[in-house]
Amino acid sequence: MTEPGQTLRVALLSDTHGFLDPRIAELVEACDIAIHGGDIGGFGVLRELQPRLGRVIVVRGNNDTPRDWAGKDTAGLDDVPRLAELDVPGGRLVVIHGHRSGPLYERHHRLRRRFPDARAIIVGHSHRQVCDCETLPWVLNPGAAGKYRTFGGPGCLVLSTTAGDWTLERYRFDPLRRHPRSQRRSAADRSRGEITP
């Protein structure tokens, strides 16, 4: 994967729901591998991920079902795992969507108990970017990398790993501007009182 002493850059993203923000796709191109934490929304998203080494690790989310992918190619969807593990310099990454990990206030504790040998656990589902690095294993949620429920804009994380050190970079982008036609429709709807700000 990398030579001893070299840094491996891993793009962490999740919750695209059929749309990958192009700024995040560009960041992925500058990384060695990419990890998608589920709720992909279609294989087209995975084809847009082009890390330098060509390796993309992906898990299924609760919305990665034939029903949720209506009108899209679902051949091979059953082959997408619900859990993935990857050894990188300095430790093991576990990837799981996280929707079956219990209530939010207990989720990190349960994940740490379930995967005690991991260095980091990558989750998705909540669409909220979280970096819980106070104790091992880290619990990392890169936030939503698409356009739905981004809570301030699409985001992702980049994990840089060596045998002795891991560093994390957080990325958050402004939401993409709406198409002018959509903006006009929204303004008209607001004037009729159908949408409340």
Q: Main attributes?
A:
197 residues, 4 helices, 5-stranded mixed β-sheet, 26% strand, Purple Acid Phosphatase, chain A, domain 2, alpha/beta, globular
Order of helices and strands: EHEHEEEHEEEEEH
What structural class do the secondary elements suggest?
A: alpha/beta
CATH architecture classification: 4-Layer Sandwich
Kindly give the count of domains. Answer: 1
CATH class: Alpha Beta
Helix amount: 10-25%
**C-alpha Rg, in Å?**
18 Å
The CATH topology corresponds to Purple Acid Phosphatase, chain A, domain 2
Q: Based on CA inertia axes, which overall geometry fits?
A: globular
**Low-pLDDT runs:** 179-197
Main sheet summary: 5 strands, mixed
Mean pLDDT reading: 84
How many beta-strand elements? 10
End-to-end C-alpha gap:
49 Å
CATH superfamily: Metallo-dependent phosphatases
Number of H- or I-type helical stretches: 4
Beta-strand share of residues: 25-35%
Sheet with most strands: strand arrangement: 3-2-1-9-10
Topology (elements, then pairings):
Elements: E1 8-13, H1 22-29, E2 33-36, H2 43-48, E3 55-58, E4 83-88, E5 91-96, H3 104-114, E6 120-122, E7 129-132, E8 138-142, E9 155-161, E10 166-172, H4 180-191
Parallel strand pairs: 1-2, 2-3, 5-6, 6-8
Antiparallel strand pairs: 1-9, 4-5, 7-8, 9-10
